Amino acid sequence: MRPLRTRLTGALLAVLALTTATACGGSPAADPANESAATTTTANRVEPLENTPAPSLPATVSAADGKKVTVEKAERLVPLSGSLSEIVFTLGLGDRVVARDITATFEQAAKLPVVTRGHDVSAESVLSLKPDLVLAETTTGPEEAMEQIRAAGTPVLVVAPAHGLDDVGPRIRAVADALGVPSAGNELAERSQDRIAAVRKEVPRQSEKPRVAFLYLRGSASVYLIGGKGSGAGSLVEAAGAVDAGAESGLAKDFTPITSEALVKAAPDAILVMSKGLESVGGVDGLVKIPGVAETPAGMDRRVVSIEDGALLSYGPRTDQVLRSVVEQLYKKRDAA
Question: What is the model's pTM?
Answer without folding.
Answer: 0.86
